[in-house]
């Protein structure tokens, strides 16, 4: 007999990092910022009565602030419910070809999930033996290109010329550079959006801006790309970004001083932590993100992962090809990293 | 030459009701609730520092509250960023057949937009001459069924037996009943979800619960339907509902007394307003929603619409087949409706 189950879109869903209810956990598994957002959010009064009204569908307040901050036009900014929403919309809007889209084999683990859910053909291009993206792999015919810079979970950055070569070689594809982690030491390719109409740069408030709880992401590109994105977005859900996100999100953008100070702290903690990891016998990839990707010379990554979890320190580990020897560790506060170092000393010496 | 524009998903986007920046406007165009949400939201303290963390991807706090309120299991509740997000996910998840889905020709104007964006074939079934849904139309082979109850923009309600007959006749399709307006005088078909595994009931916080600004919607059905929905949702965006929505949304559910009191006020204002409209020569469809759909016997709907707009009263008018003679007017406060009545008296007498 026919059943409604015959018509279901079945997918292998993305599994996000654990969000433990236990507040004693040291949470270094989802690349959250250890420092809160700018205190400017405390100065904003949310008018509860106003929640009865729909938010501004165009999110003008936030779009205008972001345009001003980045010195581009408001028509060049698209906002969404986290960069996941933004990139998901990009997949729907721009990756409509029968040709495969390209992204690295080791990268943000949502790309193949989106490709599957939207039935987009794709090819995963192998990183080299040092986990570097191979530029030439992205010069073949394709239906679109996406990768993060710095890449995740490796943390490895490529420079502007590297990306410009790829964008220039692919005028028939939209190239999306996911700059979720760019503020932690990388150089943005944003200046290229006025030179190439097929380049889209994606950002998030969830990492450097410390607002993962609000779900704010955005894309920047030429106004035509942004218009196509908005057309699809308005056809899926006209009002996605809610009033608190618009208000709180807009409030923090001006506080550049606080923003820079937390970035400096995270970068300095990262550099110190990398030194300690190396001292303990870890191979650490060169990270320009707020996390490091590291593998111990003798102790199994899953053993470290499970032992840390017992001690209430959560990091990230994937039982996936090529990276099962590695742990992705978010940079927390100095105190959190000291605690972790001390646990790693025990684990790596005890089992040696 | 090939261009990235060859691969764009182009769509005719949905046009939402205007959101004027002018706060002196009487806004009766988007079916917002004239009364604010329960004062319980003011008792909640949002910890700004906590915004640095991702929200709970499972939205357990809100899901559990809703399950308790409706006396069903948490596994029977799916939440999304407004009912638009929920229904959009339903289209993606459940309407995957090559057979056309069915919905009325006069109904929520987003259904055909979603069908277009997701490339789903559809047939719009003609309402009868009194704008009633014709049950028998939904007994043919199809890939899914959706309609609002009460229907929008007509406001006309069907009873539980009517819907049960359709659900029973379509075991091979998921039937979605969009109950966005059910609280304003209708009877929910929610009890049927334990009897039929192909029925999904959708609700929103944007109308009766007065929280359009937070973007909260939810669906209820058997746990298998909900699981399929969650699998697709986690594959599109794992963290859609932000922390303020989870916290504020959960806070108001217990305040049944305030909820009921605002519903009573809106219903009583509606009944009085309908009487006035009839007195002024309007044909008014029998509404069980927080809006009415009305056509004047002699004055052109667009003339009324434009004149009201000049006077800073916004209502909704569609230049669309069958309904271009009608206005959809949201029920506001008594004061707002008095102002509107007085303007309508001028317009309909002056042009007579």
UniProtKB/TrEMBL annotation, chains A, B:
The modification N6-(pyridoxal phosphate)lysine is found at residue 207. Gene3D superfamilies: Aspartate Aminotransferase, domain 1, Type I PLP-dependent aspartate aminotransferase-like (Major domain). Pathway: Amino-acid biosynthesis; L-histidine biosynthesis; L-histidine from 5-phospho-alpha-D-ribose 1-diphosphate: step 7/9. It catalyses: L-histidinol phosphate + 2-oxoglutarate = 3-(imidazol-4-yl)-2-oxopropyl phosphate + L-glutamate. It comes from the Bacteria. Its EC number is 2.6.1.9. Homodimer. PANTHER family: HISTIDINOL-PHOSPHATE AMINOTRANSFERASE, HISTIDINOL-PHOSPHATE AMINOTRANSFERASE-RELATED. NCBIfam families: hisC. This is Histidinol-phosphate aminotransferase. It comes from Eubacterium ruminantium.
């Amino acid at each position: 007999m026919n059943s409604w189950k015959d018509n279901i879109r079945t997918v292998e869903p993305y599994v996000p990092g654990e969000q433990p209810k236990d507040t004693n956990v040291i949470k270094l598994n989802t690349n959250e910022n250890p420092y809160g957002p700018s205190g400017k959010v405390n100065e904003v009064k949310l008018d509860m009565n106003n929640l009865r009204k729909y938010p501004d569908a165009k999110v003008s307040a936030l779009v205008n602030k972001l345009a001003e901050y980045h010195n581009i036009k408001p028509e060049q900014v698209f906002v969404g419910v986290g960069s996941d929403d933004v990139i998901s919309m990009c997949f729907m809007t721009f990756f409509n070809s029968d040709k495969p889209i390209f992204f690295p084999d080791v990268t943000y683990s949502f790309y193949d999930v989106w490709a599957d859910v939207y039935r987009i053909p794709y090819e995963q291009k192998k990183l080299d033996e040092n986990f570097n993206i191979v530029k030439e792999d992205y010069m073949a015919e394709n239906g679109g290109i996406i990768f993060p810079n710095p890449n995740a979970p490796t943390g490895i950055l490529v420079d502007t010329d590297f990306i410009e070569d790829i964008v220039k070689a692919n005028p028939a594809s939209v190239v999306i550079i996911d700059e979720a982690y760019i503020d932690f030491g990388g150089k943005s390719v944003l200046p290229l959006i006025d030179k190439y109409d097929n380049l889209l740069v994606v950002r998030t408030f969830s990492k450097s801006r410390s607002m993962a709880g609000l779900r704010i992401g955005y894309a920047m590109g030429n106004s035509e790309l942004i218009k196509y994105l908005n057309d699809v977005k308005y056809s899926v859900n006209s009002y996605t970004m809610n009033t608190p996100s618009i208000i709180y999100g807009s409030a923090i953008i001006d506080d550049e001083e606080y923003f820079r100070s937390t970035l400096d702290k995270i970068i300095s903690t990262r550099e110190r932590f990398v030194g300690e990891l190396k001292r303990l016998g870890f191979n650490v990839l060169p990270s320009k993100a707020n996390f490091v990707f590291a593998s111990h010379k003798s102790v199994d990554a899953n053993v470290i992962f499970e032992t840390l979890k017992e001690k209430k320190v959560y990091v990230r580990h994937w039982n996936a090809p090529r990276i099962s020897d590695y742990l992705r560790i978010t940079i927390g506060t100095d105190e959190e990293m000291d605690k972790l170092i001390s646990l790693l000393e025990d684990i790596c010496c005890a089992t040696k």
